[in-house]
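Q: How would the C-alpha cells look for this protein?
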Amino acid sequence: MATAKLIMLAAGGTGGHLFPAEALSHALHAKGMRVVLMTDTRAAEYAGRFPAEAVHAVPAATPSGRSPLQQAKALFAVAKGTFAARRIIGQVKPAIVVGFGGYPTVPPVLGASLAGVRTLIHEQNAVIGRANRFLAGRADVIATGFAKVGGLTPAQQAKCRHVGNPVRPAVIAAAEQVYEPPGEGKIKLLVFGGSQGARIMADIVPPAIQLLTEAERARLSIVQQARVEDDERVRGIYEKLGIRATVAPFFKDLPAQMAAAHLIIARSGASTVAELSVIGRPGILVPLPGSLDQDQAANAAFLEGAGAAIRILQPELTPRRLASELSRLIAEPEHLTTMAANAKSAGIPDAADRLADLVIATAHL
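A: Here is the predicted structure in C-alpha cell form.
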C-alpha cells in the first residue's frame, strides 16, 4: 500500500516547533518515508520551504483570551480545525501523526485520534507545554527532548521516551567546528533573543559592555541581533566604545555564527538549548519571563546543572550583573573552554534519527 509509509507531521507557530519537525522530516526521508505537514493557516504562509511533499492548513487558535467571547471563538476554531484535520487524514491516510506542541498541533493530533490513527507528540521543553499536556492522555507515545520533564502524570510518564531535541542539518554541520579556546586573544561574543529578537538584549548588553574596563572591552568582538528599532542605538554604543561589532535584525546563518562564538548570550528556548549543546558552546541564558510553565527557566537550569551555562533570570539581569559575569569569564578564559566541553557532552546530535526510529516503531512500519 503506497500510503503505508506516509507520515504526517503537525507543527506551526514558532521556529521552536517547526525546526525539530524539519529535522525529523529530513531523517524520515533518509529512512525511505514520505512526509506531509499539517499546520495552521498562519504558519502555512511561511512553510513553503518545509521538506514535505504537501502542506495542509487547518484552523487553530490559542484559547488563552481573557474574555469568554475570545475563548469561545478559539474553541470553535479548534473544533473546526479538528474536523478539517480528520477529513484530510481520512483522505491521505498517514500511518501516524506526529505533533510538536503549540496549539497548531491540537487539531491534527485530535483529528488523528478520532480517526483511529496512531499519534506521537514530541515535547521539546523541560516542562510540558499546555497544548501537549492537553494531548498527552490521547497520544500513544510521548517523545521528550529532556530526560526529565515536569508537569506529567504517572500514566503519562509511562508513555515517555527520551530522544533529545532534533536539530537542523545546518546545526549538525556547525557542530563539526571545534571550539577554539580564546586564550589571550579576542573573545567572540554572540548575542541574540529568539526569532523576533528581544529588546532586553539591546537594553542590557551594550550598557554592560560599557561597564567593563578598557582592557576587558579590547578583548571582545561582538555579533548581536537587534530589532530594527534598536539597531541604531546598539550600533552607536559599540562604535563609541571602539568595539568591532556586527549588528543585524536577523542572521540566516545562526548555527555558523554560534559555532564561531566563544560565548553566547541568549534566551533559553528548547531549540537554542539543543543547538548550544550539540554545537558545544558556553552560554549566559536569560529565560523568557511570564510563561505559565516557566519552561525556559527549566531548560536553562538543565545546561546550568551540566556546567555549560550561567542562568540569569530576567528580573536579575542588570548591566552590573552581566558585566560582573563577563568580567569573570574574560579573566578566566579557560572556564569558557570547560563550559564548552560540558555543553558538548550534554548534546544529542542524533536526536532526529532517534525520533525517526521511534516514530517508525510506533507506527508499526
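The first strand starts at residue 6 and ends at 10.

Residues 241 and 288 are 29 Å apart (CA to CA).

Upvote if useful.
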